[in-house]
Amino acid sequence: MGSKASPKRVLISHISFICFIVVPGISASSSADRVIGLPNQPHTPWVSQFAGYITVNEEHGRALFYWFFEAQSQPSHKPLLLWLNGGPGCSSIAYGAASELGPLRVGKNGVELQFNQFAWNQEANLLFVESPIGVGFSYTNTSSDLTKLDDAFVAEDAYNFMVNWLQRYPQFKSRDFFISGESYAGHYVPQLAELVHDRNNDRRRYPFINLKGFMVGNPVTNDNYDYAGIMDYAWSHSVIPDDLYRRSKQVCDFKAVVWSNECNDVVNQVFDKYSEIDIYNIYAPKCLLNTTSSATADKKKEHGLKRVRILAGGNDPCYSEYAKMYFNRPDVQKSIHADTRGVTWVSCSGDMDGRIPVISSRYCVEALKLPLKSPWRSWFHDHQVGGRIVEYEGLTLVTVRGAGHLVPRNKPSEALALLRSFLSDEPLPNHR
Amino acid sequence: MGSKASPKRVLISHISFICFIVVPGISASSSADRVIGLPNQPHTPWVSQFAGYITVNEEHGRALFYWFFEAQSQPSHKPLLLWLNGGPGCSSIAYGAASELGPLRVGKNGVELQFNQFAWNQEANLLFVESPIGVGFSYTNTSSDLTKLDDAFVAEDAYNFMVNWLQRYPQFKSRDFFISGESYAGHYVPQLAELVHDRNNDRRRYPFINLKGFMVGNPVTNDNYDYAGIMDYAWSHSVIPDDLYRRSKQVCDFKAVVWSNECNDVVNQVFDKYSEIDIYNIYAPKCLLNTTSSATADKKKEHGLKRVRILAGGNDPCYSEYAKMYFNRPDVQKSIHADTRGVTWVSCSGDMDGRIPVISSRYCVEALKLPLKSPWRSWFHDHQVGGRIVEYEGLTLVTVRGAGHLVPRNKPSEALALLRSFLSDEPLPNHR
């Protein structure tokens, strides 16, 4: 995945991740933020964790909530990895930390936590942030801020978060730093990386952050590639009939800023078909708990079809409901130093989400017309094909076979192998 | 699926089955063929079974081997269902009966049999035949017959089998009769149905067989649709890279009788990619037992790419190897009245197989240009989407979501629901 010294990149989506390497420490900690333990956390193994708020704008009173896990072994020798979920508006606590790749995952019905044997803090010090403000436990004291949440605003807050977090945890200031995330974080992650990269060039005004690369899973790129891919994927996976697919080819120009009514109608019909199953993991069962997310079908029509709430996958498709049950418990919130100010904590609160199929990522990467470094091949894990990989200059596209949208939940062992390869810059195995 | 009185049809492939309804009892039995029990068969429940040979051509000494299971309840009120596997050259005993839909399936390492709670003899009297001669325990005393096995020859033998089997089991002579099968049986099944249908019109020369319809799963249709679908499926499921797919579009005319060298090269490359995984169930693990089937890659090149041996799927991908171990035991062969004459019984012995993706079936059905009866919709099973269904005049296309090539093995409960609907002519549920 490129040389360690130079800027590099990688992406992973569906089924696939992309990593981009761009440019870059924790051992002690802010003791006030140390988490002694969460309710119903397993007694073993020991988990070294911290949680709390970092102010990102004093004047407006904006603060982002984080949950940080030291690496399970030799934390002073391991890199720092930031994880961001997408949505926009989905909680990195509910998804990344407590449902996907963190060491403590919420179990059935939100009753207890379970230790995740494939947690990514085996390989890195792991930092989850609820971003932007308005998501989960993150907040602003200036409500008009909530109307300004474009990508640049979000990146600026995230940058300030990192600068101030590194002030609180100075032992990480020079540590190798990587940014990762999934879905709409396909926007957040590269924009934050670019901001860090640019400001690293102006050391008189900004502190240096030792950014080494970034990685995005099933990333939102732009409507053109994403929706063209959604149509191709839905048709080729027998979700929609031939005539609907043909009609999408006839009436939709996804490059257009405003879609025609005919195209909107087709897209609506496609999402209607998807409302029957879990769009994020099409062969998995759908969560049938009677929850707020049953409003999905109506919501997506209100918001240009871009919102589908339930992110399902893994073994029990209701995991996000379980996370919601758990993190709404006052004893849980107290244990992680969270402040909900009497408001119900929601796992997703934004207005854009949608499964990003591997086909969309391929269209996007193809459009970059990067020089090929090594051709498409399978990579192997546990004597089986883990997925496929193709390396370009500065970017690697990797698929994870049989994974849904939440790769580290659906294929935890494969995802951890991929992370190990990404962080160490060692190639993924090319034989059984 | 059409009215019961008129000819009707259904097909199911991959992920999908197709049923065609065309036109038309067991209670006693040929006692000599009764099977008392097989070695390591579970003691309960009781399985009423018969096995043996039916001569199909006296002069040449051709005989087909069958394994028959009475329906689990009220056998005298249930229809008769014939099941044929494809290949050509794959055993209906090894696959259909002992790995997919029969009541007795071979367990791990071929040690014992397990009762299948989703066995299709819940719904019908179930007849498995090893067809044509040369497959499994079926034989000919005239070796030159083995060079003549075109579809018409196979259909003629199968027809004679049915006529003579009904002589031995006369209580089924007027019973509703259905034919089913998968893969290359996409040729065998309709050709046998056509022969029965045609000869039913000449009652002076031929006995009447009460054929009511047929059903084929993941059926081979013709190279044009099948290979176009294989390419689209491989690309859209991230098995092959974009450039290889584009090249297939440029150099392959699958309608041609002889493919160009360039096209053969592309197809070879596609099958090389597939050799890394289980082509019959692309997200399942591959069987890693060190068996004869490791010769796959070479074999397919010898035979115009059409042979891939391991039919994997279900929980343990090595099931076909287990069946081979079990049915090569002399005690097992004796218990079912089989005669191997010292030859090793093989589960597949033919020279054409290849996964038939749902896309291929859709291309084929589309080409029939049949009038639409009811549009594409999801059908439901156990509160989840079981798959999709679209009904044409005389033909129904049904997909089974998340199934591989061996639908009754991969999705046994869904497959049984589908069979029930097919036999009863009751629609599949259209809501959770």
Features:
432 residues; alpha+beta; eight-stranded mixed beta sheet; Ser_caboxypep_his_AS (chains A, B); 15 strands; 2 domains; homodimer; disordered N terminus
Describe this structure in words.
2 copies of one chain form a homodimer. By secondary structure, the first copy, chain A, is α+β, with helices and mostly antiparallel strands. Chain A has 2 domains: 1-221 and 306-432, Rossmann fold, CATH 3.40.50.1820; 223-305, no CATH class. Chain A is 30% helix and 20% strand. Chain A is built from 12 helices and 15 strands. In chain A, strands 3, 4, 5, 6, 9, 10, 11 and 12 form an 8-stranded mixed sheet that branches. In chain A, strand 7 and strand 8 (113-115) form a beta hairpin. Chains A and B meet through helix 4, helix 5, helix 10, strand 13 and strand 14 of A and helix 4, helix 5, helix 10, strand 13 and strand 14 of B.
